Amino acid sequence: MRRDVFQAIADPTRRAIIQQISQEPMNLNAVAGRFDMSRQAISKHIQILVECELVRIRQQGRERFCEAQLEKLNEVDEWVAQYRRHWQGRLDALSSYLVDLQANSNKNP
């Protein structure tokens, strides 16, 4: 099954992992140590993030480091932007309506 960025960020643990490693790359043990769950469970979350191209694993000596690749989050931003534009247009129309309503009520006391 091909996962996408929306599936990756749907889980709060994965969002927290992204948040942590976006600050600085961390080795797998350091990431796992920040959560109250097994290292195996964290590894599964990281695997999903790797599949979705939000995390890259870099081998450095005997350690494996997780690095955030946040470019894929642009897909989420583009999806949200269409709704932001829609609601901004609706709010602008409401604002204009309220201004007109106020102007008309001031003309006819």
Automatic annotation (TrEMBL):
SMART domains recorded = HTH_ARSR (SM00418)
InterPro entries listed in its UniProt record? ArsR-like_HTH, HTH_ArsR_DNA-bd_dom, WH-like_DNA-bd_sf, WH_DNA-bd_sf
**A GO MF label:** DNA-binding transcription factor activity
Where is each HTH arsR-type domain found?
Answer: 1-88
Gene3D superfamilies, alphabetized = Winged helix-like DNA-binding domain superfamily/Winged helix DNA-binding domain
* PROSITE patterns xref list: HTH_ARSR_2
Q: Which CDD domains match?
A: HTH_ARSR
Coiled coil: which residue ranges?
none
Q: What name is this protein filed under?
A: Transcriptional regulator
Kindly list the organism's lineage.
Answer: Bacteria, Pseudomonadati, Bacteroidota, Sphingobacteriia, Sphingobacteriales
